[in-house]
Amino acid sequence: MRQVAQICLFTLFLSVIGVTTDTVFQPTKHERSLALAAPKTCRPAALSQLKRHKIAAGETLDSIARRYNLIPATLMGFNPVLQTGKAPVGEVIVIPPYNGIRVALAPGQTLRTVAKAYNIRPDVLFEINGCQPNPRVVFVPGVNWSPIAASSSAATGGTTVDRIVSGFPLPKALAKTEVLLGYGWKLQPTTGEVAFHSGIDLAAPVGTSVLASGNGTVAFASNQGVYGNLVVINHAQGLQTRYAQLGSIRVKVGQTVKQGQVLGTVGTSGTPSSRQSHLHFEVRSRSELGWVAENSETYLKKILAQ
Q1: For residue range 30-59, what is the model confidence (pLDDT) as tens digits?
Q2: How far apart are alpha carbons 47 and 129 in whole angstroms?
Q3: DSSP per-residue letters across 204-243
Q4: Which of 169, 177, 217, 243 is the most exposed place for a label (fewest CB within 10 A)?
């Protein structure tokens, strides 16, 4: 019975992402392992877990975001009334369970095409949306809403991008440091629950210098909820890097930085995903609806191979 249930879930997953299960289709070993490793029962869809919040006097966009462990961009994407940056007293807004965006599927569009557009695994998108057979609207985790459309010259791979983000974010002595938690859906060491990890945790002693991975402009340099002390750098070609859980910050918003420049130091601020001190490092690319989390491990492997 267990095997039958797994096969049924696998068949449903394939049909939802837009793959037929007729006699011509032969799933790969990897696709079968993804489906058979899936939970026996799906969790409720993320969009079914929306909460409502009535804005009270004295509250701001930032304070509401911190209360729910979200970033302001997530709330702005779900609530147009907040897109001016102000929080109108008395307005009722919706609060999603995680950072991400809501995407309406166009006619003929499948979860597989949405997953490809946002660089997320189809099975992950399927599960976080409650294993729905024909969703019209889906939640995409790890994407930040932005009013800025993607530049037509934005790139997401290739040698040009490799040159833009080409420096290791820690001193050379730590180039082979341990990866405490990788990118993607992982078992969180601090909670014991499976959750999406948008970056990579690189083990490093508290006080270690954190270095810019490429030339760019500081877009954010302050405390940001679960990220703790966070520095965000915008690079050319629609790329962005993030350095979180810092102990100190040594740059300011609007400042131009060079690859290898010290941005701050390793710390334990915010809500770290790993118990050991580390740098939480992310690489993101700009899309039409926001900053999409890339697999930062891929970038770091290329950097270390140089």
Answers
A1: 444 544 444 456 889 999 999 999 999 999
A2: 7
A3: --TT-EEE-SSSEEEEEEEE-GGG-EEEEEE-STTEEEEE
A4: 217
Q: Please give the C-alpha separations between residue 22 and each of 27, 43, 222, 274, in angstroms, as whole numbers.
A: 11, 28, 53, 44
Q: How confident is the model at residue 5 (pLDDT cuts 50, 70, 90)?
A: very low
Mean pLDDT of 231-247: 92
* Statement: the pTM of the whole predicted model exceeds 0.90: no
Tokens representing 104? 């309406």
What is residue 126's three-state secondary structure?
A: helix
Orientation angle between helical segments 2-17 and 29-36, nearest 10 degrees: 120
Q: What is the pLDDT of residue 27?
A: 43
How far apart are alpha carbons 216 and 166 in whole angstroms?
12
User: What does the CA dihedral 123, 126, 128, 133 come to, rounded to 10 degrees?
Assistant: -160
Do residues 239 and 161 lie in contact, with contact meaning Cβ atoms separated by under 8 Å?
yes
Task: Indicate the SS3 state at residue 202.
Answer: strand
Q: How far apart are CA 17 and CA 15, in angstroms?
A: 6
Domains and CATH numbers, the chain: 2-44+101-144 (no CATH), 49-97 (3.10.350.10), 159-305 (2.70.70.10)
Alpha helices in the chain (DSSP H): 2-17, 29-36, 61-67, 72-78, 111-117, 122-128, 159-164, 296-305
Q: What does residue 152 show for φ and ψ, rounded to 5 degrees?
A: -65, -20
Closest to 139 in 3D by CA, of 289, 2, 304: 289
- Amino acid letter at 72? P
Torsion sign across C-alpha atoms 144, 90, 138, 185 = positive
End-to-end CA distance of the chain: 51
Q: Are 141 and 102 in contact (CB under 8 A)?
A: no
